[in-house]
Amino acid sequence: MKDIINSAVEKNRDMILEAERFIWNHPETGFRETVTSGYMEEKFRELGYDLTLADGITGFYTVLDTGRPGPEILVLGELDSIICPGHKDADPVTGAVHSCGHNAQCAALLGVAAALKEPGVLDDMCGRIRLCAVPAEELLEIEYRTELKNAGKIRYLGGKTEFLHRGYFDGVDAAFMVHTSGSYSIGRGSIGCMSKKIIYKGKAAHAGGSPWAGRNALYAATCGINAVNAIRETFAEPDTIRVHPIITHGGDMVNAIPATVTLESYVRGSSFDAIVKANRKVNRALTGAALSLGTNIEIIDAPGYGPHRNATGMMKVAEDAAKLTIPDYPMSVSEHVGSGSTDMGDLSAIMPVVHPYSGGGRGTGHGSDYEIADPVAACVDCAKWQVGMLYLLLKDDGARTREILSEFKPPFASKAEYLAYIDGLNCSGDRIEYRDDGSAVVKCE
Ligand SMILES: [Zn+2]
Ligand SMILES: [Zn+2]
To answer: Which ligand neighbours the alpha carbon of 102 most closely?
Structure first.
């Protein structure tokens, strides 16, 4: 089977490598990936797939039925880029660049799609394979996504969460995707996060003539950031809390006291309980700063991504598939939990998943020196690995998938239960009520 899988991918090597370059050269951030999604759609159609396009947003999926009863496996590739204007290949207008290697993931997904159409590859497999080009993994441009949310175009900030909510993954039994990295590895997962948009609301006044008539939203914001920095040592180590605010709007003109200053941040943590507990402290610190300057503060909390845990059985499938298809690559297998976040975490809340890493990338992830140094490792051999995983999950009437499902204890009983829980994390509004008698009421959930 190794030879059948590997030669099926190799036959499509040029197409895979071309896709890697094309998508690298057309980086687009989440829910804006129109060129990337269009390119992927065209290539999938050329391979003979019927696609279901995501309604009103980027991305699509297709279901390949082997014609034999069995489980359904979802395979994902991420369409979006990050923003790093200092990168030499960044888009000169938007600053977008694939410094997280998602371009290679898309190329590998195309390789998987192409290989599954080659003779012999599906012969020993049962069930269905759902291939999905998913938008918006990187949780950024929160202001833009909040606008999409308020306009009713999306309900969740992450593409996988949104697709899950829309029913695009209904019927899926287990899922995997391989993220591009510097070396091949399989770990236990990564931490989750809450997304925050913060608006300090002061009062404008002439910065030279009558600064006493204003209330400085920028100083309130910097006090808020300092207050958050002052509580970092109260975060317990096992909770792996990460808070990293940025100022996205710092004032309107230099000769006025800033009336509106906006920030974006995450609160990351190893469990939902840890995230919620830390988020409460962060909101108290941010709000206290607003009170000290006499400004108001609006905090818009929204669910980010769930803590991501790979299922043990799926990790083993990834390890075995690598031994089968790409045994020459050193493979690190560990219990490591990374301190990034991914919306694969939302899928791992309800189904067995694995999200291992391929080699081929080089440089600092999300940094200005990141590149796909070895596109064969990142795309071609990565596709072989993924077809190998499908083979192991779907051969023998899907026995291995059934075993994984029987051992899997989902953190949430159903998609409905999970989405209801994260919906409860939404919280927005002004946090201070100033009263006419000079007192103030602070609302800190
Ligand atoms: Zn990333
Ligand atoms: Zn990424």
So the answer is: 2
**Segments of the chain assigned to CATH 3.30.70.360:** 193-305+425-442
CA angle 380, 383, 389 (to 5 degrees): 150
Continuous segment of H or E residues that includes residue 20:
helix 13-24
CA 332 to centroid of ligand 1, rounded, Å? 20
Q: Strand locations in 95-221, DSSP E?
A: 96-97, 128-134, 174-176, 179-180, 185-186, 189-190, 192-201
| Cα(90) to centroid(ligand 2), Å | 16
Say how many Å lie between the CA of residue 443 and the centre of ligand 2.
36
Q: List, in sequence order, the alpha helices (H) in 154-271.
A: 159-166, 217-230
Q: Are 178 and 386 in contact (CB under 8 A)?
A: yes
pLDDT tens sequence across 112-145: 999 999 999 999 999 999 999 999 999 999 989 9
Ligand 1 centroid to 366 CA: how many Å?
6
Single-letter residue type at 205: A
Domain 193-305+425-442 fold: Alpha-Beta Plaits (3.30.70)
| CB contact at 8 A, 81 and 99 | yes
Which of 341, 383, 387 has the alpha carbon at shortest distance from 365?
A: 341
Q: Are strands 308-309 and 189-190 parallel, antiparallel or unpaired?
A: antiparallel
Domain 2-191+307-411: CATH architecture, name and number where available: 3-Layer(aba) Sandwich (3.40)
The pLDDT value recorded for residue 445 is 65
Collect all residues with Cβ–Cβ distance below 8 Å to 78 and sequence separation of at least 6. Answer: 102, 105, 106, 134, 135, 137, 159, 177, 179
